[in-house]
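Comment thread on ticket #2218

A.B. wrote:
> Attaching the input chain for the structure job we discussed in standup.
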Amino acid sequence: MGLKRPASCFSALLWLVAALLVILGITGIVLVNQPNEYYCNPQEYAVVFDGGSSHTSMAVYQWLADTITEYGTGVASQLAFESSCGEAGISSYADDPEGLVPGFEKCLETASLVIPEYSHAKTPIFLGATAGMRLLNVTDPDKSDAVMAVVRETLASSPFHLPYEKEQATILRGEKEGSSSWISANYLEANLGVEPATGDVIHDLSPSEPIPVKPTFGALDLGGASTQVTFIPDTPGDVPDEYLANLRLYGHEFDQYTYSFLCYGANEARRRFEANLVKDSGFANVTLNPCSPVGYSYELTGDYLWKAPCSKGPIAMEGWGSETTSAPGVSEDDMEVMTYTLKGTGDAKQCYNLSKTLFDFDAKCDKPPCSFNGVYTPLPHGSFKALSTYAYTAVGIGMPSKPTIEEFNTAGDDFCVKTYDELKNLPDKMKYKVTYCFQIMYIKALLFDAFKFDASNWEIDFTLQVNDVDLGWLLGFTINATNWVPLEQACVGINSSTSIGLLIIFIIILVVGLLLLLHKLYRECLAVEGGESYQRAPSKPADKA
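C.D. wrote:
> Ran it. Output below, let me know if you need it in another format.
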C-alpha cells in the first residue's frame, strides 16, 4: 500500500492541473471574445517644472501625437499652469532640501488632476533648475546635489514617467534657457511654420496645414540671477560656434545667437549695486540710494552684501570680473550682524548713470561687436520680446507694452521721482514697487548701452503672455523635447492584434488541458479493464501429488 500512495497523489495532481487548464482556457476565450472598446488617447502630455532662482512654477502641456508624425515636432498647448510651487526658488532650500517637498506635491496634485489617469504612466516629467542652482552648484556642490536628490525623489514618487532622473531633472545651461524662451515666443506668434495650438479641445490642438515661416522675434529674458539674449542675427554665418545654437523645429533649421550673462539678473545686479553704494560711501552707517524712493529707508546686512556667490569667489570673478569689497577688518562672523541703512533719494538720472557702472564696456573684445565684459554680441536685428522681469517691471511702472523710446524713458523717469507715500497708492506689493526704479534703469542700461538698441532698431514688446499663454522657457523646452523624447500613446482596452494573440494562447491552454483529461481518462479506462481481466482469470488447478 505504501508504494501505491505517491502514484495516487500524482494522478490526482494531474487531474487538478488538467481541470484548471480547461477552466482557464474556456474563461480566457470567453473574456477575449467579449465586446471590447479599444481607445488610444490622441493627446500626449508633459509636466515641466521651472526651478528658478526666486520661485518654482509648473506647467502642463499637451499635443496631438499625429503632429509629431506630420511636422517632426509637437504642436503643443498649455493645459495648466501653477505659478507657485513653494515659497522660494529651490536653491533657497540648500540647508533644508526636504522643505521644498510640500510645494512640489501641491503642483504634482494639480498635474494629476488635469491629465487623464490612464495617461499618467506615459507622461514624461521634467525639471530645469536655472541660475540660482547654477550658482549653488559651483559654490557648494554637496548642497546642490542634496537639493537635486530630493527633487528627483519627489518627482519619482509621482505617477509620471521619469526613466532618466538625472537627465529629466537637471540644472539647465543658461543658453538652453535663453534658446527655449526664443522658441516659446516665436511658436506662439506663428513664426516657426505652424499655427500654434492654444485651446484645450482636441480639434483645436492641431493646425490644418503648415504655414510659411515668418521673420522671428528675438528673446530678452531677465531673471533673478542671470539674463539671456537670443535672436537670429542679420548674418548668422558670422557668429562664432560657441555663441551659436542650431535648432530644427517643424522641419525648418534655425541658427540662433544666444548667450547667458550669469550674475546679471535683476536681484544679483541690485545686490552688487547696493554693495557698491555702501563701499563708495566709505561704509557709512547711512548710504544714499538714488534708485529708491524719497521717504523710504531700509537695512542690509554685510552677509547679504558680501557673502553671496555673485559677490565673492569664482562665480563673482566669472560673472562680474571682480569681487565686492567688504569693510576693512570685517570678519566672516561680523558680516552676519553688521547692518547698513540705505536711504532713498529718487534720482532717476543718477540711478541710471550708476547702473551703467555695473558693466565693463572697456573690456578687451576679441571678436567685435561686444556688449560688455568682452562678450561677443551682434547688433540687434528684427523685433524682440522682452520677458520675465523686463515685462513685470514694465507693468509695475505703468509703461505701455510696446513703448516708443520716448515713452520708455518717460515712464522710467516719472516712476523714479515718486515718493514712498505716492507708491502706497499704486497697485502691487510694496516690496516690488520699491525695486522698480532700479530695475527700469538697469534695464535701460542693458538695452541702450550693453545691447546697443537705438531708434534704428527699437522694436520691443514687453510682454508676459501671448494668446493667454505664459511666456518663458517652459513651453519652448517642451516643444523642443518632442523632437527627441521617446513617447508612447496611452491606450485603454485591448487592440485587435493583442486579442488574436491572447485567443490563440487560451485555445492552446484549453487544448492542452483537454488532452491531459483525455490521457487521464484513457489511463483510467485501461486500469479498470486490466483490473476486471485479473479478477476473471481462472485459477490453475493444484498439482496432484
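A.B. wrote:
> Thanks. Noting for the ticket: The domain at 40-262+466-492 is CATH 3.30.420.40 (Nucleotidyltransferase; domain 5).
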